[in-house]
Amino acid sequence: MIGWLEGTVTQRGRSWPGAQELIVRCGGEDRRALAYPALVGEPEVGDRVLLNGNAQALGLGTGGYALVVALPDRLPVQPSADHRTAQDTGKMSVPQSGRAGGHLVKARYTPLQAVVAGVDEQDSPHHELLREADDLAGMPVVAADLHSALPAVCAAIQHDRPGTRVAYVMTDGGALPLWFSRTVAGLREAGWLCGSVTVGQAFGGDLEAVTLHTGLLAAQRVLGAEIAVVCQGPGNLGTGTKWGFSGVACGEAVNAAATLGADPIGVLRVSEADPRERHRGLSHHSLTAYGRVALARARLALPDEPGAFWARVRAQAAPLEARHGLAAVPAEGLDEALAASPVPLTTMGRGLDQDRANFLAAACAGRLAATATR
Cys-Cys with 246: which of 104, 173, 265, 308 at CB 3.0–4.6 Å? Predict the structure, then answer.
């Protein structure tokens, strides 16, 4: 069920491309809220708003906002037939959901389903480019299970090969609107990403695609990416079971990349600080995703670091050797690269100082990808 709330905007807070923070007064209580102007219009102080309060009621760390569902007294004007999005002009901007001429419905058959213009649909200017495309010609595709790996992967790539065109392909295991991610906004602003593609039910990228396969092809052929990074948006779902974790889909990303003739590279999820034993050293989710879900061969990056912790990780990863290549990657210079990230590095509430191993493992996958493009 939706936990409905009604209130009045009393303050506008931070904003970034596609998102606007608000303070909303609901029944004598102030609530932190988030609006996506492309969906609901631009909220102003004094506006009456309808909110979905489920995330706040559950106490979700990543999604602890009430989400604006509508400005009922000031509904947004529908786009005109001659409205043009970023895909039409070739410029990168926040796409406008509901654009006339778009035919892809995302968040399908929910009350908030959005109609977007797909890069691969028949009316797209890129349709002919993608219609028969089926080969990525060895482009490195880095797959990760958590959104927090994205800046660490990019840090290594931009450290080793400054100016490399890296595209982010966002799957739908976490947040559906890409606009929720301040990480992506910061990486775009810093020039570390050349663009984004949202696939499946996810939406809000520079390009919209039906599947991960067309998303990868569009990243290369439309955005001009030399490397693609695939992971879910922020706010993954986990149940403490072997299979009940949305990030297991990174194994499917390996399969899609290999099917299209890419060079699949896997980020191993590693932690030296997670309080849960199943995630200490090498996470059991990496063993499931790469050991069972990924049927195609990938190169899995392992930091070539000394010490008992990394010896443990190598021993835990050994069963993956039969299916994949375990690549020992030198880590020299990567601490400095991670420290230079233009966006905060955080995973499960832990930063670089608390869980260096996690970010170093992701950075080594980025280094492996950067090496492959030389």
Answer: 173
Beta-bridge mates of residue 143: 230, 266
Separation of alpha carbons 157 and 79, rounded Å: 39
DSSP state of 14: E
Q: Residue 232's pLDDT band (boundaries 50, 70, 90)?
A: very high
Closest Cα partner for 292 from 240, 333, 250, 234? 250
What is residue 264's three-state secondary structure?
strand
Reading phi first (left if > 0) and then psi (alpha if -120 to 50, else beta), residue 305 is in: beta
Return the SS3 of 206.
coil
- How is the chain split into domains, by residue range? 4-70, 140-372
Span 258-274, pLDDT tens digits: 999 999 999 999 999 88
| Mean pLDDT, residues 252-256 taken together | 97
What's the confidence (pLDDT) of residue 64?
81
Q: What is the mean pLDDT of the chain?
A: 90
**How many residues can be counted in the chain?**
374
- Note the CATH architecture for domain 140-372: 3-Layer(aba) Sandwich (3.40)
The separation between CA 293 and the C-alpha centre of its own chain, rounded to angstroms, equals: 20
Specify the higher pLDDT residue, 130 or 100: 130
Fold of 4-70: OB fold (Dihydrolipoamide Acetyltransferase, E2P) (2.40.50)
Contact 329, 367 (CB under 8 A): yes
Neighbours of 244 (CB within 10 A): 10
- What pTM, to 2 d.p., does this model score? 0.91
Q: For the packed helices 212-221 and 250-259, what is the interaxial angle rounded to 10 degrees? A: 60
Q: Residue 62 — pLDDT band, cuts 50, 70, 90?
A: low
Interatomic CA distance for residues 174 and 180, integer angstroms: 10
- Specify whether the CB–CB gap between 365 and 358 falls below 8 A: no
Contacts 24+ apart (CB under 8 A), 159-165: 159/333, 159/334, 159/336, 159/337, 159/340, 160/337, 160/366, 160/367, 160/370, 160/371, 161/370, 161/373, 161/374, 164/226, 164/227, 164/370, 164/373, 165/194, 165/223, 165/224, 165/225, 165/226, 165/227
